[in-house]
Amino acid sequence: MKVCFVVDKFPSLSETFVLDQISGCLERGMEVGVVCNQTTFGTEPNVDNARWRNLPAGVARWWGPLAPLRPHLRYWSGRLWDKASTALDVALAGKLEKYDVIVAHFGNNGLRVARAMKRRRISAPLVTVFHGHDVGAPMHDGTLSRYCAVFEQGTLQMPVNGFFRAALIGAGAAPETAIVHHMGVKTEEIAFRPTERGDALALISVCRLTEKKGIEYALRALSHVWSQRPDLEWTYTVVGGGELLGDMKELAARLGIASRVDFLGPLPHAEVKRRLGKAHVFLLPSVKAGDGDLEGIPVALMEAMAAGLTVVSTFHSGIPELIEDGVSGLLALERDVSALAEKLIWAADNPEACAALAVAARRKVEDDFNSTRLNDEFADTLVRLVEARAAA
Asked: Could you give the domains of the chain?
């Protein structure tokens, strides 16, 4: 069975869930190809290119030799860009015709495939995986109905959480075609090692520094912690780059906590795992961004929970589907700096209770977010779709 994954940029350090799903299909005997806008082999730092190249059918750019035109056409506005890009999508979509099933990651790519399906002989079932910004932004500006073509031409919509599923159904997706499919982690490859507390509480965040990750509120909460409990010793490590890196460094300095905060930038995954192994608390106070961007359910939280850290996050999007406040982690309301500071102080003062949270967190990830089992389910779904299409 030939499976095509349609993505924006490949490989992408922030989208390791794509690699995991591709690897799952390959391990189950499927032939896999990737169609993308841009290939980044050898250009994106900290990506293990050898792993991403293990694709028998290879990687192709949707627009082929015309791919360099896409960034320039993006300067066009509104309908002009939409018409031009759609025309080129349709004209150059022949490479999609050879596959038995198409998996589009993010709604924008599902929409591109759906529009091409209307005009070309592409009969493969289309599965669109919705992750975050592709749902949150159109919810914010009232344009979620843009995906009507996806609902009509596609076979399945696979939002990564129940919050997104409800939104898609509200926009016109048939309930029977909208199925929640979580992203996950390989728990068997993550050692559970509850860390022993030393003199200082070690906090860590691993994320791209964008608004929705809420690092601003993490810093402000830690400033509150310092003012309320000057007796507490703590350090905070932030792993990841992004457009807000400079702003967050400046904020830490203005808050007077720069001496306790270390911004490391992007790191290879092996080094991230090493850093996680030395930390006690994983902090990710996600928020709805100004443009409506939302989290799905952050894989970084799953990895931290599987590794034995105490996770502190927010009641945001699908995060409560992963973390139950006071049972498998700690949650505060979005942008509530005082509440977030209270959670951090509690975590510092209650190491034994945090150890119990960590055990429950590991169990939750093993039961509901194990990527091996999720990949089995995903592969079975693709097989059933292809068999149903063949029978029809």
From this structure: 2-184+371-391 (3.40.50.2000), 187-368 (3.40.50.2000)
